[in-house]
Amino acid sequence: MVDTFIEFYDKINFVDLIEFCGTFAFAISGVRLASAKSVDWFGAFVIGFVTATGGGTLRDLLLNTTPFWLLSSVYAWCTILALLTVILFRKQLVRLNNTFLWFDSIGLGLFVVVGTEKAIAFGYPFWVVVILATITGTVGSIIRDIMINEIPAMFRQEWYALVCIFGVMIYYGLIYLKMSEPVVQVLTAASVFVIRLLATRYKLGLPTLKDED
C-alpha cells in the first residue's frame, strides 16, 4: 500500500493538485447545497460528485479523451471527504456566511485553470480554450442546480460564465508577461475567485431577457 501511495505521489503534478482541490471545493458546494434540500447522504454524494466532475467530463468527451475521473479513484474520495466534512462540521458551515459561495468560487477558479491548460495542451486556439474552460467551470453547477430543482446560477442575472472568460484572458495575459507556470495558475485561480465574489457582492450581472407586455 505504501508503494502504491509513493507511486501515485510521484505521478501527480501541480495541475493534478489543483484539480484535486477544485474537486473537493466543488463537491463541498454541491453537498452543502444538497443539505439545504434535506436529501440523504447518498443523494448528497451524488450531487457533490456530479458538481465536481460534470464540467470536466463534458470537456474530456469533447476532446475525445477518457473522462478524468475514470482514471483515478481520487476524485470519488475527494467527494467522500467533502461529504464527511459537511456531515461533521455542518453547524459550523451553516453559521459561516456565504459558505456555499466561497467554495463554489474556489472550485470555479481552480477548474478554469484546469480547463484552460487542458485545452491548450491539445493545441486549440484561444476561442476554443475559452469555451472548454467555461464548460469545465460551469457545467457541473448547471447539472447540480437542475438536480435540486433550481434555476442554474449561470442562467440567472449573475456573472458566472463571464468570470470564466475573464479567467482565461487573465491566464493568457500572465503567460504573455512570461510568468512561471505555477504563478500563472495560482494568480488566475485567485483572480476568478475574487472577481466572482466582487460580482456577487455588488450584484453585477448581465441584462435579463423579458417578454414585452
UniProtKB/TrEMBL annotation:
Keywords: Cell membrane, Membrane, Transmembrane, Transmembrane helix. Belongs to the UPF0126 family. This is Trimeric intracellular cation channel family protein. It is found in: Cell membrane. Residues 18-90, 101-174 form the Glycine transporter domain. The chain crosses the membrane at residues 12-34, 41-62, 68-89, 101-120, 126-147, 159-177, 183-199. It comes from the Bacteria. It is a multi-pass membrane protein. One of its GO terms (cellular component) is plasma membrane. The keyword Ribosomal protein does not apply. InterPro entries: Gly_transporter. It comes from Myroides albus. The lineage of its organism: Bacteria, Pseudomonadati, Bacteroidota, Flavobacteriia, Flavobacteriales.
